[in-house]
């Protein structure tokens, strides 16, 4: 551990924490690919700009999935056994979002990325000084997730009650899944980081 690494207690041993981070991120990317693929099934109904966004997004998510899988192989971490459930849940969520038309799709994207980007930033902060290569990979992926989030946020009215209800539900479900998949590490990391100054990669990512 270098001077740049924030201090964490004994509840975050590197091997175990890193394996949980990799498994949840890889499963999440599998789910993200499934969401966008479900939405793209209805491409005939969408405008060119939405189809272009979905095509870019699914390509990004496939690259993220591959990068995390390679990082797992390099560190002898096996994929999570619940991955098929993430794919099925993601596909179902993609279909549900289609019911809201283009605004439903953008709201779905914004909600998921709002939840995900906080977790990625916290993971990168934890890994800084412990596994810098993985911290940098997560920080790079985070930049693309933030682009998805911003694109999503532009595509619907957050003051619409239905959109607020839908996005709130999706954000909470995403947080709960991440919490379950990391055996609670996600909330413990968040709590620990609140008590520490930003460091290394976390500074690069910003708030
Ligand atoms: Fe992703
Ligand atoms: Fe994304």
Instruction: Tell me the major beta sheet.
Output: none
Arithmetic mean pLDDT: 91
Q: Helix/strand/pairing class, anyone?
A: mainly alpha
Give the cofactors and ligands.
fe (ii) ion
| Low-pLDDT stretches | none
What does this protein structure show overall?
The protein is 76% helix and 0% strand. The chain has 207 residues and is mostly helical. The chain has one domain. The longest helix has 27 residues, at 14-40. Bound molecules: fe (ii) ion (2 copies). The site of one fe (ii) ion (FE2) has 5 residues, from α5.
Q: What topology emerges from the helices and strands here?
A:
Elements: H1 14-40, H2 48-74, H3 83-98, H4 101-127, H5 132-154, H6 161-181, H7 185-194, H8 200-205
The structure holds fe (ii) ion (2 copies).
Residues 29, 32, 61, 64, 141, 145 line the site of one fe (ii) ion.
Short description:
By secondary structure, the chain is mainly α. It has helices spanning 14-40, 48-74, 83-98, 101-127, 132-154, 161-181, 185-194, 200-205. 41% of the residues are buried.
Q: What labels would you give this structure?
A:
207 residues, 8 helices, binds fe (ii) ion, mainly alpha
């Amino acid at each position: 551990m270098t001077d740049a690494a924030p201090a964490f207690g004994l509840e975050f041993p590197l091997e175990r924490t890193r394996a949980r981070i990799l498994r949840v991120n890889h499963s999440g990317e599998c789910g993200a690919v499934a969401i966008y693929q479900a939405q793209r099934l209805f491409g005939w109904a969408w405008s060119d700009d939405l189809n272009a966004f979905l095509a870019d997004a699914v390509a990004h998510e496939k690259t993220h999935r591959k990068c995390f899988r390679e990082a797992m192989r390099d560190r002898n971490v096996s994929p999570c056994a619940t991955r098929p459930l993430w794919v099925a849940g993601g596909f179902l969520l993609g279909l549900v979002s289609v019911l809201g038309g283009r605004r439903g799709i953008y709201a779905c994207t914004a909600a998921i990325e709002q939840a995900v980007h906080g977790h990625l930033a916290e993971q990168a902060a934890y890994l800084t000084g412990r596994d810098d290569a993985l911290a940098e990979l997560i920080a790079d992926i985070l930049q693309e997730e933030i682009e998805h989030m911003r694109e999503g946020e532009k595509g619907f009215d957050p003051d619409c009650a239905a959109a607020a209800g839908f996005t709130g539900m999706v954000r909470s479900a995403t947080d709960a899944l991440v919490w379950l998949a990391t055996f609670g590490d996600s909330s413990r990391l968040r709590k620990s980081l609140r008590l520490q100054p930003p460091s290394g990669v976390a500074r690069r990512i910003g708030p």
